[in-house]
Write a structure and sequence with these properties.
By secondary structure, the protein is mainly beta. It has one helix at 139-144; strands spanning 2-6, 11-18, 33-38, 42-47, 58-60, 67-72, 77-82, 84-85, 88-89, 92-96, 105-107, 114-121, 124-129, 133-138, 154-157. The strands form four sheets. A five-stranded antiparallel sheet has the order 1-2-3-4-5, with no helix packed on it.
């Protein structure tokens, strides 16, 4: 579980996150999925139970910039955050892994690369970016109101 960085040029070559269930610690990856973001503008879901040589269980696509961060909310939604440069990118995308054909929401609020993503509870998470902002997101509000491009619930600058 974690992110893989190429420390030579401070760019994220791929990210991996073991996706858990109810968070009780009894089984780290009960549904057997590992998410991998890469520079080819896709996130792949791998099912480690399928064995060596098996292809990805699903591929999440439609990104403009590559995914730099991944996290999972406590209710099992995968959140991906993307690279951004000069006010473009920095997109945050949420996926329901039970139906990964289309994202639940595409959210904008960062103007630079997202460098951190952390779950805050049921359908809530925070992102931090090189634009020196911490954003808190509530997916229930974004999806419930049909706002596929919903903004953050809270904006907080940091130094």
């Amino acid at each position: 579980v974690g992110d893989f960085f190429n420390n030579n040029n401070d760019s994220c070559n791929s990210s991996r996150h073991g996706l858990g269930g109810d968070g009780d610690g009894a089984e780290a990856e009960p549904h057997g999925l590992v998410a991998q973001g890469s520079e080819d503008l896709a996130v792949r879901l791998w099912d480690w139970r399928r064995g060596p040589g098996a292809g990805p269980a699903a591929t999440l696509s439609g990104y403009t910039f590559f995914c730099t961060r991944l996290c999972e909310t406590t209710d099992g939604l995968l959140v991906t955050a993307c690279k951004g440069v000069g006010g473009e990118g920095g997109e945050v995308v949420a996926w329901d892994l039970r139906q990964p054909r289309e994202p639940l929401a595409r959210m904008r609020g960062h103007g630079e690369e997202v460098v951190g993503c952390a779950p805050l509870g049921r359908s809530r998470f925070a992102t931090m970016a090189k634009d020196n902002r911490l954003l808190v997101w509530d997916l229930r509000a974004a999806v419930g109101e049909g706002q596929g491009g919903a903004g953050p619930a809270l904006r907080a600058p940091f130094a």
